[in-house]
Amino acid sequence: MSEKVRVRFAPSPTGPLHIGGVRTALYNYLFAKKYNGDFILRVEDTDQNRMVEGAEQYIVDCLKWLGIEPNEGVSFGDGSYTPYRQSERKNSYRQYAEKLVEAGHAYYAFDSEAELEQSKAANPNAKYDAETREHFKNSLTLNKDEVTDLLKSDAHYVIRIKLRANEDVKFYDEIRGWVTVNTSQMDDKVLLKSDGMPTYHLANVCDDYVMKITHVIRGEEWLPSAPLHVLLYRYSGWENEMPKFAHLPLLLKPEGNGKLSKRDGDRLGFPVFLLEWTDPKTNEVSSGYKEKGYLPEAVLNMLAFLGWNPGGTQEIFSKEELVDLFTIEHIHKAGAKFDFEKAKWFNAEYIKRLDDKVLASLVKEDVEEKFGTVDTQYLCRACRLVKERLIFLNDITSAYGYLFKTPAEYEEAILFKVKNIKEILILDDFIQLIGTFYEKDEEIENKIKEFATTNAIKAGDLMKFIRVSLVGEFSGPAIPDLILLLGKEEAAKRIRNCYDQI
RNA sequence: GGCCCGUUCGUCUAGGGGUUAGGACAGGAGAUUUUCAUUCUUCAAACACGGGUUCGAUUCCCGUACGGGCUACCA
């Protein structure tokens, strides 16, 4: 590639960024980094009515958490094309629209909302295009003086693109190949709204041109309007600098049909957002991957593989490796259903590969919040013990709290299953045995088994009892490891405590 | 409805004119483990359908079905 690659992620801050949008951002990031290009965050806030408080900051936070920070754009430092918020670029768009009018590729339209609705009501398929625009109130049907007067008065008007009738518009999509749409299927889209704001189409094309964007990588929902954008480049005289297009397949619901939507997350008990989001109007809270205990690296890896695959059988890749491997050619064409089980697997894999110390530092806050101050050394050892059993980071506090807190009371039903130990075990003898344990787990295991035989206790029964004492349930890490971690005194204390409760 | 895009195991996917169609997740079985998890072994599981083209099609072409998207002064 001769010119410098520049891509952009251009969300509109109308709510929390969902996982599909995040993947779009990720692909843009990977592509940019692969070619040592620029990755830009541009906020498309041209619809003032749909703006949601906090949404822009939320987008920024998501990108930061995932580790795919733009090197230019809103809140990531100015490049040469500031500002990066379209509302702040408002004044720049009119000139381009006016130029199109002058060149005969656009026109003023004065139809009121009511009038447009009326025509829609008369014919639901009504279009505003080459065939029908003569029936509307616009600078093509009105005479010059009327138009001048209307423009001078404070009448509301929009600028619409003037499409030629029955013209095939062809463009090349990097993922799908050539796509052709006939203008008879499109209509004279509004370019500049009556409030002076550009629509997506105009703003998008102008900014991509001005910001020297080389590749437009966006969701497939934009595919049908891409021909319109191509025409805008052509009519503006920018066709030679038109970016390449790549329309990404959509992320679909895990079950049933349809595009993954914001509601799916909590309905299915899994997040569709990276970060927890509280709706500023309803105060409704939607869960996030971060809060659920996902590692950003795992989410990134998982997301990268949803619709893309480098070939081969390896699935765990670092961000750097993904950057290295990423190519648009390997992006799949069909939509991908989101699979939460696979997401869990990725997370568990990443946790397993974490260094004990790193894991400890990641869970420290959660642990201390629930169980009070914990010795770092101890936390590291606890982490090593449960690392390969964790799916989520906070499993350590929800499922392995006994590593940090003495079980106070044991469940009746569980005690019932070990109660036979009461008559056959001489507690003091066993406590004494614990005192003889050294720092080796086979040695501990052997001693326990030996003790069982000499005291005519089934080894399994003894183990079960010890396990319940230490943990409060029938599953968990190996008993010798547990004893070594908790310490002989704590272990003895728990065993005595449990024995007393039987 | 119209237009555009798509369709390989349940899911994510590899592959591509001649393959026992490969991997992963989930599922089944087994081994290891005092337990659970991990780990290991193993099993089951797919080219939507119908026509072409071809010696040969899952792969190329056309149609059908199905799925998705778009069809706003929303992005």
Question: What can you see in these coordinates?
Answer:
With 502 residues, the chain is mostly helical. Among the domains are: 88-248, Glutamyl-tRNA Synthetase, domain 3 (Alpha-Beta Complex); 355-398; 412-501, Orthogonal Bundle (Arc Repressor Mutant, subunit A). 43% of the residues lie in helices and 10% in strands. The protein has helices at residues 19-34, 55-66, 90-102, 113-122, 144-152, 200-210, 226-236, 264-268, 289-292, 296-304, 319-325, 340-352, 356-371, 376-386, 395-398, 412-416, 421-424, 427-434, 441-454, 459-471, 479-486, 488-501, and strands spanning 6-9, 38-41, 72-73, 106-109, 158-161, 168-173, 177-182, 190-192, 215-219, 244-248, 251-252, 277-278, 285-286, 336-337. The protein has a 3-stranded parallel β-sheet with strand order 1-2-3. The protein has a 3-stranded antiparallel β-sheet with strand order 4-5-8. α13 (356-371) crosses α14 and α21 crosses α22 (488-501). The longest helix is centred in the N-terminal third of the chain and has 16 residues, at 19-34. The chain is elongated and about 110 Å long. The structure holds one RNA strand of 75 nucleotides.
